[in-house]
Amino acid sequence: MGEQRLAGRVAVVTGGASGIGKAAALRLCEAGARVMVGDVDEAAAEQLLAEANGAGHSNQVRFRRTDVSVEADVAGLIQAAVNELGDLDIVFNNAGINDTLDPIVDVPVEHWDRVFAVNARGVFLGIKHGARAMLAAGHGGAIVNTSSIDGLSASSGFPSYSAAKAAVINLTRVAAVELAPSRIRVNVICPGGVLTPMLARGDFEGARRWLEKLQPWPEAGLPEDVAAAVEFLASDDARFITGEALTVDGGLMAGGARLVEKIRARVEAQMASER
């Protein structure tokens, strides 16, 4: 990791209490940034704050309860970062929820709307209000969004999730083009099989084993692997990169649809067994 290459920067991380968001929040702190975390899980946020304190980052991390599907919550999170931490340089729009295992013909409209409200609208609101704050400050900035390899390829199952994640990729490109003249970079990360609570569903060791068996790379991806990509895209080392969809997946997409389908089939089987 670069030595304090984000020193003096202020970041907002949504979905920052667990998984990829938590790893990113801690990684940004290690790189010198001060971080405002937004999440709906207050208990997990308390654990994050305790961990940050134990790592010597107690004065670098703040928390504000935030439902990213609610515009007032997102606007309040951004304003809290500016008011309490003094500026805004980085936004990591990471909050997301999973899909149910239903074919398109059986997906309830309410479920479709909820997945889009969090996974797509939440990113839109983070870009909207984050960019407003950066434009007001006049110094540019970096916005990083979380999509998924499910937003890059199609298969049966998870229609709401896949469609929302695809929307995030193109929204990123639109924002990148619009905001580039103001020196605001906008990129998106597409994780593959990463050992997060949402993927492992309580069985981290089992998930690790089947990921390492199915994907080309011999080790399962960790939230910290994605966090490293977030730090890079947020830093000046990525000054000429905008509108990019960066895949962090251990070679899954490179291996083609067959490998991706195997991962999805394994997740579907696990979800079906929980019904």
Please indicate the percent range of residues in DSSP E strands (runs of 2 or more).
Answer: 5-15%
Largest sheet composition: 7 strands, parallel
CATH superfamily: NAD(P)-binding Rossmann-like Domain
CATH fold annotation:
Rossmann fold
Rounded to the nearest angstrom, the radius of gyration is 18 Å
Number of helices: 9
Low-confidence stretches: none
Question: What is the 3D form?
Answer: globular
Structural class: alpha/beta
Q: Can you list the strand order of the major beta sheet?
A: 3-2-1-4-5-6-7
Number of domains: 1
CATH architecture label: 3-Layer(aba) Sandwich
Helicity, as a percent range: 40-55%
In round numbers, the mean pLDDT is: 91
The CATH class label is: Alpha Beta
- Oligomeric form: single chain
> H/E series, N to C?
EHEHEHEHEHEHHHEH
**Number of E-type strands:** 7
The N- to C-terminal Cα distance equals 42 Å
Keywords: Lipid metabolism, NAD, Oxidoreductase, Steroid metabolism
Protein name: 2,5-dichloro-2,5-cyclohexadiene-1,4-diol dehydrogenase
Pfam family, one: adh_short_C2
GO biological process, one term: steroid metabolic process
